[in-house]
Amino acid sequence: MSANTTTTARTAAAPTAAASTAPLADARSLGLAHYAARGVLELVLAQHGTTFQQQIALRAAVTAEAPQTPEALVAQVRGSLKADPADIRATLDELQARELLAKDGAHLRPTDGGRELLATLAAATAPLSARVWGGIPPEDLAAAGRVLALVTERANAEFAALTASS
Fold first, then answer.
1. Do 118 and 54 form a contact (C-beta atoms < 8 A)?
2. Which residues, 6+ apart, have CB-to-CB distance to 49 below 8 Å?
């Protein structure tokens, strides 16, 4: 075997060896990844006087095709965060007090200020996200996406069952 062939054989074997020693995903690793990324996001949000829940609620209002009722926004945010509905209503009140959401009859609509804040947050987090997610092979991201979608589906079903019985 030539030196080139030996190097090529070792290089080809390296990903298999690395893949076999990679930790398996589990609830702990998912939680650690979530809180690491969320910690970064919350630092940026705090620089703009915004909480995680406020950002999620504001994004729900901004991305809706039409103004939502407060209860529709509460349901959407609860579906994402599994937070207490009373806490979400308080968050909507905070966003109105900051003039990021405004009443429009029975609905809430994002204000220009709310849209500008989301754009500012997106610009501030984009380079951080690029550093966190950059360089991960697309096939790994696709596999992770499939697994996370399945875990989310199953956990949502368990959450629904537990909250229906309480």
1. no
2. none
Q: What sign does the CA torsion over 47, 49, 53, 55 have?
A: negative
101 forms beta bridges with: 110
Task: Please measure the distance between the N-terminal and C-terminal CA atoms of the chain and give it in whole angstroms.
Answer: 68
Rounded Cα distance, 160 and 158, in Å: 5
Q: Are strands 107-110 and 101-104 parallel, antiparallel or unpaired?
A: antiparallel
Under the banding of pLDDT at 50, 70 and 90, the label for residue 8 is very low
Q: Any bridge partners for residue 68, and if so which? A: 108
- Note whether 117 and 50 are within 8 A (CB): yes
Where residue 137 falls (left for φ over 0; alpha for ψ -120 to 50; beta otherwise) is: beta
**In 3D, which of 120, 111, 137, 115 has the Cα closest to residue 18?**
137
Q: Which amino acid is at 102?
A: A
pLDDT of residue 19: 56
- pTM here? 0.81
| pLDDT value, residue 165 | 80
Helices (H) and strands (E) in the chain, counts: 7, 2
Which are the contacts of 137, defined by CB distance < 8 A and separation ≥ 6? none
